[in-house]
## 1
Amino acid sequence: MDDGATPPDPSALAADGTAVEIYRRLPSTSELEYIAAQLGPNSSVLDLGAGTGRIADPLVMLGHRVTAVDSSAAMLVHVQHARKVQASFEDLALAEKFDCVLLIGSIINYPGTQPRRSVLAAVARHLAPNGQAILNWAPPALIASRPAGFIQSLTFGAVTTTLTIHSNTGRITEGEFTLEADGRRWRQSITAEKLSADTVRDELHRAGLVLTTADPETTRWLHAKLA
């Protein structure tokens, strides 16, 4: 656990260049509410790409048994309550299976087929026979609604976030996400690949999973189970 003795480094970066402070300060209210409503009491939860624990730690406080996995030690140092595991998706091979495996942050929209297959394989490896996978994604209509020049700013208390889209080819979207708080600003480049529901369904099937969401293109939340 982080006892708070060492203040966070506002300039810290994960190995892939991700600004740690964005994830440490980013509110999790709506995501947390949705996920918590899907879980039974005292569920075992695996949070893949957990970052600083902004979902994992609150779930522990709600009574769940959570394992937070991330490849970045700079991220995991901020996780205070969940069990921490530093590993890549490809290398992750925990002995236990989980009632729920989480994949938040539209990770399946990251460009490239092989990274997507690696993370979905990790989901399938760690899901209990009667468990559920909950995946957050950017459906095609959402990506199409954000052309080049799109700007969206949102304020959560003392935190303001801004999403700016620089280019949208119809398949690949590139832009920047910024977070402002305490008179400072952190920037993060973003790149997302537009995927159809059929593509996601096929990739889940390849990993040994079945999509159970009835109308996936109308929601940012996908549910899956073992085939």
## 2
Amino acid sequence: MRILHTSDWHLGKNLEGFSRIEEQEKFLEDFIDIVEQSSIDLVIIAGDIYDNSNPPARAEKMFYNSVKKISGDGKRVVLVISGNHDNPERLIAASPLAYDEGILLMGTPKTIIPKGVFSNFEIIDSGEGFIEIKIKDEKAVIITLPYPSEKRLNEVLYKEIDDDEKRQKSYSDRIGELFDKLSLKYRDDTINLGVSHIFVNGGESSDSERPIQLGGSLAVDADRLPKQAQYIALGHLHKPQKVKGIENAYYTGSPIPYSKSERGYSKCLKLVDVEVGGKAKIQDIYINNYKPIEVWHCSSVEQALEKCKENQHRDMWLYLHIKTDRYINGEDIKALKEIKRDIVEIVPEVQQDENEFMQRDVKEKSMSQLFKEFYFNQRGLEPTKETMDLFLTIAEEEEEHEA
């Protein structure tokens, strides 16, 4: 059986207010081509389809159009689980229509996929947290655990009559208990797989992931993952990585770098070939970096302008750090952005003695001049007219109050 594993699409996500939709569309076009060219039997999308629980209409339309093409109108299985960014009810709202196309949408650990026969595959058995499918002449049992919040996890594991002692088990132990229970569905005559959207202890995160571990309380120990699984497809972490201490559990990472902390990552998909009783053969399929994120450090505004001119026609997202001993005024910012329109952020790095501001003779300077210098000392930019007006209004009101 040939499987393609991906996750963390985050459709609709912005970068500091800049849309990434065009990059996401290019990725999905390439992904569809890879699926067709690689003769994929099963596509697994391991959560965080969208960037938030109320995605824009364009993102939803893009998802539905893409997964329909990925499934080949029911030719192959597309298994989708929700992540911590997704609204599970919204994700599975289209299940009746998607199911007819071979697209299996799973919102919570309690989601049950109906049995059914399709052109190239059959759903033989299913229940909370698992499905058994037959693709061509091969059978596979897949343990499925969409993002398990505390509430959803307890709903699956415990009944109302269960005592508090059971409920006080650690999150990791409860996840392990559920995996142990579901692993009983694995058989010697089936390909045995797992898919979940969780944070496994030891994983390397970036600053674009919404934390789900809450200081470690919602992290899962690697030894609690299903040991009999031949391959475990995980979602949540944006850096492609193998789970430490486990032979066959992987995060694919996000397909696009979603923050400057991800700019050094090589983005990829996992192509998995596996047969009954055999070890999974895993290959990385690398993805184009459609619009790189770069961070420049310039010694002056003039150098920044020159570098922008030299790279004017390169398509990138740019974080610009500029060392300066003067204001970066509105005209400077306008000039930079006219050359490079996709400057995400300009960060002044003020070269100034830490004690210089405090040592100045404040008696000889006006209130407005002192405020301008203070503002520049803190932010590296001169205050706008609106900011100055607001400050002076507040200062005047304070003087009147004291009088």
## 3
Amino acid sequence: MAYKVPRPADGTFLPCVIADYMTSEGHPPQHRKTGAIPWLAGKLYFLGDIMAARIIRKEVLIPGQTTKLVLDAPHVAAKAKPGNFVILRVHGKGERVPLTIADADPQQGTITLVYLVLGKSTWLLNQLEEGQELNDLCGPLGRPTHIEPGPEPVVCVGGGTGIAAMHHIAKGFARAGHEVVSVIGARAKDLLLFENELRAFSHEILVATNDGSHGIKGFVTDALRDYLDAHKNVAEVVAVGPVPMMEAVANLTRPYGVKTTVSLNSIMIDGIGMCGACRVNVGGKIQFACVDGPEFDGHQVDFVELRERLSAYKPHELKSYQECGCSHG
């Protein structure tokens, strides 16, 4: 039986549960059209393929912590827009890992992903080397960033691995003619990501480190506050990073009356809004990050509830990580 589910208006939708079906039927997911599956034909709305994805470049950005992968994924690259994400699995019985697309090159047929080695699934992902394949890759998923053409200044704020995801969004605003101001932060200089890449199209880049080793000493909110005090014509602030950082940005911008968008990397299972794992309270209404997001009005997100939901599985994640014998070394 196939579930009939709505496709977002922009068309970026791909049910990840199909990969399970294809694997169980003995069909490798690599470059197999979803329309070729009889019980899906005419019953599900979809756009694209579910496929294995080959790693063509792997780069350790921060040893033991953060890695960048460039994947051969032409069908995803052709449709990917800023703000979209993918869900991948390392092997057929592995957990699904949602990652926001850090860059996409339709001409080369590649997408770039950046991840923090934090648990069992990302540890297993980090064991793969160039030339090896992911079991399956679903995407592009989610609603892309809403970008209207215009010259107005847009401030893009990134923290941690969120800087990589913010990179794709900031580039999208720049290509649409906006004056992009990039604000990035980390605990120290050697933990900053994508600074050079952002400089290529940012009108201005502001850097904050906790220890003062690069840029101002403090947080991204300190740099953002100074900028908002000096510039009254900011059209929008977009924040991507740890939940506490995005919450702090939203709290900061509220009295300025500046539109603020946050990208929520919630827990996800199926990526089609059926499991409900990624639900978030936005303006008193339940939304699903996988199909309604991942971007939402930062001034409407219930961050207290979001933090509670994200921490609910931490004991189980830690146990799984310890039992697999995973090590950052």
## 4
Amino acid sequence: MTERVDRLMMDPRRGLLMLAWPIMVSMFFSMLLNFVDFFFVGGLGPKALAGVQVSFPVFFFIIAVGSGVGIGTTALIAKRLGEKNKKWAEETALHSFLLGGMTALLFTTMVLFVGPISNNLGGGPEVSLLAGEYMWVIFAGSIVFFLVFSMNSVLQGEGDTKTPMKISLVFTICNIVLDPIFIYTLKMGVGGAALATVLSEVVALSLYFWYLFVGKRSHLEIKPKDFIYTPQIMKNILRVGIPSAVAQMGLSVAVLGINFILSGFGDAAISAYGVGFRIDSLAIMPILGLGAGVIPMVGYFRGTRDYAGARKVYRLGLKLALAFTATIGVVVLSLATLLPGIFTTDSGVISMASGYLAIIAFAYPLIGMTIILSSAFQGMGRGMPSLIITMARAIIIAIPMAYYLAYPAGLGVVGVWLGILLSTLFSATFSLLWIENYFRKICSRCYGSQAS
């Protein structure tokens, strides 16, 4: 086991925070880049912006799959290091690179179908053409995205989140610098924005490659020449990775479902949801980082079969998440009438978005709970419970309940907001009971009375 992992496990509270804060910073860089990208593309006109916007589900699909592979890798490497099995951790890293490369090749072939895909994403002919221009570059460079995801997850699995944070900063700066050059100076337009992203990822990949293979700064000795394909390792990565990827895709489906329900109340209702959703994303972002820190920490204790320690980590993460989300919920609730004005000047949209925030602010602690509980299951190598928790919150309960309260119950837009809140309450309660029952079973065998 690496010395870093030893230090993290000696003080779980400090270890969790040390893992989580660099991930939070990396997520902030990602959010900043999204705003900057939209700013530069927006200068090309509304159709260019629409072209990138309709491409978002495709780009999000790539991110979801890559992130799924990454989460599976992080959880398994953490477990192996907890077992003091460094060799298997190194083999897991190599299998992750292979899986990332194979998946990327499938996405690369999608360049042959860019036309049909872009024509079925919505928008007029010109918007579809611009969307195709953007997606062609993204598909062509997908191997870079997947290898970056895999290498990032390897470092997170061994307890190093600061190096990925630094590389994320370099990637963000490169993208911000290259955006105006390719979009305007070289007159490449929307395709230039995509190319700037891909080339920035190439820089990030180069830094990861140097760190892992040339500088050999990692605690793992990853030697491609010693690679031996082991189906069980691939299966273990996918057992956590596939449900995680599907869960993330489910979130985009949930947004589409809520948009469909809101369409009966006009464009302003959809816009209000979009504004509220962006504010939610900013408010919850730190908890996503905390959840990403919970995964390897739980994995380390799982590897040592110290299930009481794993339970302690997830409960610590839960307390931190509840404290933060309760605080941010109060802030958002008190500013509910002001925050939407940052994104729009339309009084109707502001009014509905304010109503959304006044209700959903109460859901923030519940959302924080589901994120941490899902991460704990992933750290324990159980991807399916995480998938069910996410699907229950976002789709299975939320959409039917939102529809019922909006139309049959006659509550209108407010009914949609209440449906989201109530579904989150149900899934958070169900998730907490589920994971406590799970730990009670495994701890009762190993620790007797300590399981309580």
